[in-house]
Amino acid sequence: MPEELWQSVDHYITNLFALEDSALLDALADSEASGLPPINVAANQGRMLELLATVSGARRILEIGTLGGYSTIWLARALGPGGVLVSLELDERHASVARSNVARAGFADVVEVLVGPASTSLRQLVAERTAPFDFIFIDADKESYPDYFEQSLLLAHAGSLIVADNVVRGGEVVNEHATDERVIAVRTFLELAAAHPRVRGTAIQTVGVKGHDGFALLYVTA
């Protein structure tokens, strides 16, 4: 039973490294109590994001898809003094839950949650000539991944790292005849990233409590 084994390994890693503290567990509990969908990253994935942002030396982080703020807290923990995190969320109710969770975790002063369609918010950030971000995490509606990628490049600099979640889709990403719009969009996103002259990247499959999926890791070279 591979899924049962995957979950057991995730629980072992989470417990071994004591990954979740009260701030993270409370964020999950409040998200569930508020009726938010349980689609946040797993604890070991959250730590991976924190470590990637840390080794990137990220002082400015952009998150596309806030949900209840669980991954936001992980990423905020990677920021050094003076660092800021901008998170984009479509749903005002989700944003309200996230702001409360982020504040309880001690990051109210460094995290800004912008509400509205992420494509609109991204274009506004570009139009405002916002300072580029060092680390960008994409974890929102899959149908918009190609656009999020293109807009993220406009908000990145040489050396920025872009990480995108949910790019394997239970293995459906290899199905060139897929009719699911999410799969089609993810395939388009990966093809754009693979061919882009400013990007060096890869994608990694993951299994665990979140099933079979994966992350794309894209390093902006110029």
Number of domains: 1
Classified in CATH, the superfamily is Vaccinia Virus protein VP39
Subunit arrangement of the protein? single chain
Largest sheet: 7 strands, mixed
Q: N- to C-terminal separation?
A: 45 Å
User: How much of the residues is beta strand, in percent?
Assistant: 15-25%
**Helical content class:** 40-55%
Total strands: the figure is 7
Radius of gyration, taken over Cα atoms and rounded to an integer in Å: 17 Å
Name the structural class.
alpha/beta
Order of helices and strands: HHHEHEHEHEHEHEE
Shape annotation = globular
Name of the CATH architecture: 3-Layer(aba) Sandwich
Mean pLDDT across the residues is 97
Record the SSE blueprint.
Layout: H1 2-16, H2 22-33, H3 43-55, E1 60-64, H4 70-76, E2 84-89, H5 92-104, E3 111-115, H6 118-127, E4 133-138, H7 145-154, E5 156-165, H8 181-195, E6 199-208, E7 211-220
Parallel strand pairs: 1-2, 1-4, 2-3, 4-5
Antiparallel strand pairs: 5-7, 6-7
Descriptive account of the structure:
The chain has 222 residues and is an alpha/beta fold. It has one domain (2-220): Rossmann fold (3-Layer(aba) Sandwich), CATH 3.40.50.150. 43% of the residues lie in helices and 23% in strands. It has a seven-stranded mixed sheet, with helices on both faces. The termini are far apart.
